[in-house]
Amino acid sequence: MLVPRQPVPTLQVPTLDHGSYSLQSDAAQNFILVVFYRGLHCPICHKYLLELGRLQAEFEKRGVKIVALSSDGRERAQAMADKLKAPDLRIGYDLGLATAREWGLYISTSRGTTSIGIEEPALFSEPGVFIVRPDATLYYSAVQTMPFARPHFDELLAALDFALAKDYPARGEYAGAV
After folding, report:
1. Is 160 within a domain?
2. Residue pLDDT, tens place only, 83-122
3. By residue range, what is the domain housing residue 95?
4. b/e for 109-124, b at 16 or more Cβ within 10 A?
Protein backbone atom coordinates (compact mmCIF):
# COMPACT_ATOMS: atom_id res chain seq x y z
CA MET A 1 0.00 0.00 0.00
CA LEU A 2 1.30 3.45 -0.90
CA VAL A 3 1.52 5.86 2.00
CA PRO A 4 1.14 9.64 1.73
CA ARG A 5 4.37 11.61 2.26
CA GLN A 6 6.40 8.51 1.32
CA PRO A 7 8.11 7.88 -2.05
CA VAL A 8 6.02 6.39 -4.82
CA PRO A 9 7.36 3.48 -6.90
CA THR A 10 9.60 4.22 -9.84
CA LEU A 11 7.60 5.03 -12.93
CA GLN A 12 9.21 5.03 -16.36
CA VAL A 13 7.33 4.50 -19.62
CA PRO A 14 7.62 5.52 -23.25
CA THR A 15 5.21 8.21 -24.43
CA LEU A 16 3.76 8.78 -27.86
CA ASP A 17 5.07 12.27 -28.58
CA HIS A 18 7.08 13.31 -25.55
CA GLY A 19 9.94 10.79 -25.39
CA SER A 20 10.68 8.54 -22.45
CA TYR A 21 8.85 9.56 -19.30
CA SER A 22 10.31 9.22 -15.81
CA LEU A 23 8.22 10.47 -12.91
CA GLN A 24 11.27 10.69 -10.68
CA SER A 25 12.88 13.23 -13.02
CA ASP A 26 9.72 15.16 -14.00
CA ALA A 27 10.39 18.68 -12.76
CA ALA A 28 6.92 19.91 -11.86
CA GLN A 29 6.57 23.18 -9.99
CA ASN A 30 3.93 21.89 -7.54
CA PHE A 31 2.58 18.44 -8.41
CA ILE A 32 2.50 15.66 -10.97
CA LEU A 33 -0.91 14.25 -11.85
CA VAL A 34 -0.57 10.58 -12.81
CA VAL A 35 -3.68 9.13 -14.44
CA PHE A 36 -3.68 5.38 -15.03
CA TYR A 37 -6.42 4.40 -17.48
CA ARG A 38 -7.65 0.96 -18.53
CA GLY A 39 -6.90 1.24 -22.25
CA LEU A 40 -8.35 1.81 -25.70
CA HIS A 41 -11.13 -0.71 -25.05
CA CYS A 42 -12.69 1.45 -22.31
CA PRO A 43 -15.29 4.03 -23.41
CA ILE A 44 -15.31 5.55 -19.92
CA CYS A 45 -11.54 6.09 -20.15
CA HIS A 46 -12.02 7.92 -23.43
CA LYS A 47 -14.56 10.27 -21.88
CA TYR A 48 -12.38 10.71 -18.78
CA LEU A 49 -9.27 11.56 -20.80
CA LEU A 50 -11.25 14.00 -22.96
CA GLU A 51 -12.07 15.90 -19.77
CA LEU A 52 -8.44 15.76 -18.68
CA GLY A 53 -7.31 17.15 -22.02
CA ARG A 54 -9.91 19.92 -21.79
CA LEU A 55 -8.60 20.95 -18.35
CA GLN A 56 -4.90 20.41 -18.99
CA ALA A 57 -4.16 24.15 -19.25
CA GLU A 58 -5.85 24.73 -15.88
CA PHE A 59 -3.62 22.14 -14.23
CA GLU A 60 -0.57 23.66 -15.89
CA LYS A 61 -1.51 27.14 -14.56
CA ARG A 62 -1.23 25.60 -11.09
CA GLY A 63 2.21 24.15 -11.72
CA VAL A 64 0.89 20.61 -12.26
CA LYS A 65 2.33 18.34 -14.94
CA ILE A 66 0.23 15.48 -16.29
CA VAL A 67 0.87 11.99 -17.59
CA ALA A 68 -1.86 9.52 -18.61
CA LEU A 69 -0.79 5.93 -19.12
CA SER A 70 -1.96 2.38 -19.59
CA SER A 71 -0.61 -1.07 -20.26
CA ASP A 72 -1.70 -0.77 -23.90
CA GLY A 73 1.04 -1.08 -26.50
CA ARG A 74 2.04 1.80 -28.76
CA GLU A 75 -0.54 1.08 -31.47
CA ARG A 76 -3.51 1.04 -29.10
CA ALA A 77 -2.19 4.07 -27.19
CA GLN A 78 -1.89 5.95 -30.50
CA ALA A 79 -5.46 4.98 -31.41
CA MET A 80 -6.64 6.44 -28.08
CA ALA A 81 -4.60 9.62 -28.65
CA ASP A 82 -6.08 9.96 -32.15
CA LYS A 83 -9.58 9.78 -30.66
CA LEU A 84 -8.70 12.34 -27.97
CA LYS A 85 -7.23 14.97 -30.29
CA ALA A 86 -5.21 16.43 -27.38
CA PRO A 87 -1.65 16.56 -28.76
CA ASP A 88 -0.17 18.18 -25.64
CA LEU A 89 -1.41 15.44 -23.33
CA ARG A 90 1.43 13.06 -22.48
CA ILE A 91 0.21 9.55 -23.23
CA GLY A 92 2.38 6.77 -21.83
CA TYR A 93 2.12 3.16 -22.88
CA ASP A 94 3.60 -0.28 -22.17
CA LEU A 95 3.01 0.07 -18.43
CA GLY A 96 4.18 -3.20 -16.93
CA LEU A 97 1.50 -4.90 -14.86
CA ALA A 98 4.05 -5.53 -12.09
CA THR A 99 4.57 -1.76 -11.94
CA ALA A 100 0.80 -1.24 -11.93
CA ARG A 101 0.58 -3.54 -8.91
CA GLU A 102 3.37 -1.64 -7.14
CA TRP A 103 1.18 1.45 -7.48
CA GLY A 104 -1.72 -0.45 -5.90
CA LEU A 105 -3.74 -0.80 -9.08
CA TYR A 106 -6.11 -3.71 -9.50
CA ILE A 107 -5.58 -6.08 -12.42
CA SER A 108 -8.48 -7.47 -14.46
CA THR A 109 -8.80 -10.27 -16.97
CA SER A 110 -10.41 -9.89 -20.37
CA ARG A 111 -14.15 -10.24 -20.75
CA GLY A 112 -13.87 -10.20 -24.56
CA THR A 113 -15.18 -7.41 -26.74
CA THR A 114 -16.45 -4.24 -25.07
CA SER A 115 -19.59 -2.24 -25.84
CA ILE A 116 -17.60 -0.19 -28.38
CA GLY A 117 -16.43 -3.31 -30.22
CA ILE A 118 -12.81 -3.33 -29.05
CA GLU A 119 -11.21 -6.46 -27.60
CA GLU A 120 -9.93 -6.15 -24.03
CA PRO A 121 -6.30 -7.21 -23.47
CA ALA A 122 -5.83 -10.54 -21.67
CA LEU A 123 -4.76 -8.58 -18.56
CA PHE A 124 -4.94 -4.85 -17.85
CA SER A 125 -4.94 -2.49 -14.88
CA GLU A 126 -7.99 -0.74 -13.54
CA PRO A 127 -7.90 3.06 -13.16
CA GLY A 128 -6.07 5.11 -10.59
CA VAL A 129 -5.37 8.80 -10.07
CA PHE A 130 -2.36 9.98 -8.11
CA ILE A 131 -1.08 13.42 -7.22
CA VAL A 132 2.64 13.30 -6.51
CA ARG A 133 4.89 16.01 -5.12
CA PRO A 134 7.97 17.03 -7.15
CA ASP A 135 10.12 15.03 -4.68
CA ALA A 136 8.21 11.90 -5.82
CA THR A 137 6.27 11.47 -2.58
CA LEU A 138 2.57 10.67 -2.59
CA TYR A 139 0.14 13.50 -1.93
CA TYR A 140 -3.20 11.98 -3.02
CA SER A 141 -4.47 8.74 -4.47
CA ALA A 142 -7.72 7.22 -5.68
CA VAL A 143 -7.77 3.67 -6.97
CA GLN A 144 -10.79 1.92 -8.48
CA THR A 145 -11.66 -1.73 -8.91
CA MET A 146 -14.07 -0.77 -11.69
CA PRO A 147 -14.08 1.80 -14.48
CA PHE A 148 -16.88 3.77 -12.77
CA ALA A 149 -16.98 6.64 -10.25
CA ARG A 150 -13.58 8.23 -10.78
CA PRO A 151 -12.47 11.53 -9.24
CA HIS A 152 -13.66 14.52 -11.27
CA PHE A 153 -10.84 16.65 -12.62
CA ASP A 154 -12.64 19.92 -11.91
CA GLU A 155 -12.96 18.86 -8.25
CA LEU A 156 -9.26 17.98 -8.17
CA LEU A 157 -8.48 21.46 -9.48
CA ALA A 158 -10.49 23.02 -6.67
CA ALA A 159 -8.76 20.76 -4.14
CA LEU A 160 -5.36 21.74 -5.51
CA ASP A 161 -6.29 25.42 -5.25
CA PHE A 162 -7.11 24.89 -1.58
CA ALA A 163 -3.99 22.77 -0.95
CA LEU A 164 -1.71 25.34 -2.56
CA ALA A 165 -3.33 28.35 -0.87
CA LYS A 166 -3.27 26.74 2.60
CA ASP A 167 -0.07 24.71 2.20
CA TYR A 168 -2.26 21.74 3.13
CA PRO A 169 -0.26 18.59 3.93
CA ALA A 170 -0.84 15.14 2.52
CA ARG A 171 -3.14 13.21 4.85
CA GLY A 172 -3.39 9.51 5.72
CA GLU A 173 0.31 9.16 6.49
CA TYR A 174 -0.04 7.50 9.89
CA ALA A 175 1.12 3.89 9.69
CA GLY A 176 1.50 3.03 13.38
CA ALA A 177 -0.56 0.83 15.65
CA VAL A 178 -4.29 1.51 15.89
Report:
1. yes
2. 999 989 999 999 999 999 999 999 999 999 999 999 999 9
3. 12-166
4. eeeeebeeeeebbeeb
